[in-house]
Amino acid sequence: MVDKLRKAGLWVWANKERMILLVMVVLLCRQVYAVVYPPEPEQEASLPLPRTPDPADLPPEVDPPSPEPISGLRTPGEYVNLYRKNPFWYYSTRSEGATGSDSDTLNIQLLDIRVAGSRVTARLKTNAATKWYVKGDKFEEYQLLDIDPEAGTVEIYSESKGTQETLQKQ
User: Exposed, middle or buried by CB within 10 Å (0-12, 13-18, 19+), for 31?
Assistant: First the structure.
């Protein structure tokens, strides 16, 4: 019996390099198999989509605020205030402490406002001409924004100044 153990021990000792090589080849094959056939990724539990609560289900002390309109925009879809005054340009607006000069005053006058059916027109006098204009007309360096026949005023946008002015009937 001792002779058989000694013979097995000598055989293991003589073939130890081959056995280590065999174990390393088996581990290498296992790694190659894991790279070629990767395991399926685990599916994460999907969260349910949030839903808005029904206002009738809410207690009376919880009252969601109503959306308020953005100040400065006149009507939905009118984005003129976004490009009229460039906030990234130093000279986009004039400071309030600027000295008054002839360039600060508008060279335009409101002479008359006329209502004909559903059409409202305003007669404006500029340096170049005196004409009737409707809401939205662009002329010279101005644009007629609004006409209020009850108050006798019009709102004018001056492209040169980049401001909106209100003119009263004289």
Answer: exposed
